[in-house]
Amino acid sequence: MERTLILLKPDAVERRLCGRILTRIEDKGLKLVGAKLLKVTPELSRQHYAEHVSKPFYPQLEAFITAGPVLALCVEGPEAVRVMRELMGKTNGRDSAPGTIRGDYGLSRQMNLIHGSDSVESAAREMAIYFRPEELIDYPLSLGSWMFADDEVK
């Protein structure tokens, strides 16, 4: 099983899309193991986007991610990182396929509604930024055996 960090960005919160997006994540079969609503500070933004801080677009990125609350989620499932990246769609909503979150709800490259970790390593680093270990909850899904076969999870 993999875990990944998902952020529903300020535009998703402001547009009141959190419930719809969370429903799509759960409908896909991923399990919610952590959630919190928070305001990203400039310091938290620099920690999260450390690899982008020196890039010319970073000030605009920081202004956007700190502009309003975000809903931070940790989701779990087989290949959760890849599955979520495909569910989200391409970064630019105009280029995202219908049926993806960004393809159905977005038209912007920057106001792109959702962040998802791009690798298992990034997921571990990013989850530690937003969640303490005790804030992530392990629990069995009563319908788990109907979601995927035992040999599909590692």
| CATH architecture field | 2-Layer Sandwich
Distance between the termini: 6 Å
Q: What count of structural domains?
A: 1
Q: What is the strand arrangement across the widest sheet?
A: 2-3-1-4
The overall pLDDT, averaged over residues, is 95
| CATH structural class | Alpha Beta
Helix count equals 7
Quote the CATH topology: Alpha-Beta Plaits
Q: Choose one word for the global shape.
A: globular
Let me know the CATH homologous superfamily.
Nucleoside diphosphate kinase-like domain
Low-confidence runs: none
H and E order? EHHEHHEHHEH
How many runs of DSSP E, i.e. beta strands?
A: 4
Largest sheet: 4 strands, antiparallel
| Fraction in beta strands | 15-25%
Explain what you see.
- This protein has one domain: Alpha-Beta Plaits (2-Layer Sandwich).
- Helices cover 36% and strands 18% of the residues.
- A four-stranded antiparallel beta sheet has the order 2-3-1-4.
- The longest helix is centred in the first third of the chain and has 11 residues, at 18-28.
- It has seven helices and four strands, in the order E-H-H-E-H-H-E-H-H-E-H.
- The chain is globular, with a radius of gyration of 15 Å.
- With 154 residues, it is α+β, with helices and mostly antiparallel strands.
Quick recap:
The protein has a single domain, classed as Nucleoside diphosphate kinase-like domain (Alpha-Beta Plaits, 2-Layer Sandwich). Helices cover 36% and strands 18% of the residues. It has 7 helices and 4 strands, in the order E-H-H-E-H-H-E-H-H-E-H.
